[in-house]
Amino acid sequence: MPFDFRRFDIYRKVPKDLTQPTYTGAIISVCCCLFILFLFLSELTGFITTEVVNELYVDDPDKDSGGKIDVSLNISLPNLHCELVGLDIQDEMGRHEVGHIDNSMKVPLNNGAGCRFEGQFSINKPSPPTTTS
User: DSSP alpha helices (H): ranges in 58-113?
Assistant: First the structure.
């Protein structure tokens, strides 16, 4: 007796003469297909849509640091050229510095296609929003 691999078939075919289509079955099938399409499109939309958040909030863990918080950044941007990377500093006390270049360095990544930005700066307390662009 030869080995029959077909006996492992979980979804065996039922002969057409033993089945009968119904309106209820059709409605359930259509609703399931629409639900699957809805889930697919919502996941695809969530995957494609990105939200860019460009604010960094700094906590104040030490009250005795003299009114300044030292911040060090090391950010890798694999698909952004170095000439497009800059640092703008703004705090709640009114200090606004555009294009901060002191103690900062730009290192090209991926043959110039990306950039690693390293920088150090001090900001005033209380914790300000700092924008990196």
Answer: none
Cα gap 20→67, rounded to integer Å: 80
Mark whether 18 and 38 lie in a shared domain. yes
CA–CA separation, 94 and 40 (whole Å): 47
What pLDDT digit, counting tens, does each position of 48-107 carry? 987 777 776 655 556 666 667 778 888 888 888 888 887 777 766 666 666 566 777 888
Report yes or no: 128 and 69 within 8 Å, Cβ to Cβ.
no
Do 20 and 69 share a structural domain? no
Residues 110 and 125 grouped into a single domain: yes
Q: Are residues 93 and 121 in the same domain?
A: yes
Q: Calculate the alpha carbon distances from 76 to 55, 79, 113 in Å.
A: 16, 9, 12
Global pTM? Answer: 0.41
Q: What is the number of other CB atoms lying within 10 angstroms of the CB of residue 32?
A: 10
- Extract the tokens encoding 84: 């497009």
Q: Give residue 67's domain range.
A: 55-132
Half-sphere exposure in the Cβ direction for 4 (13 Å, CA)? 4
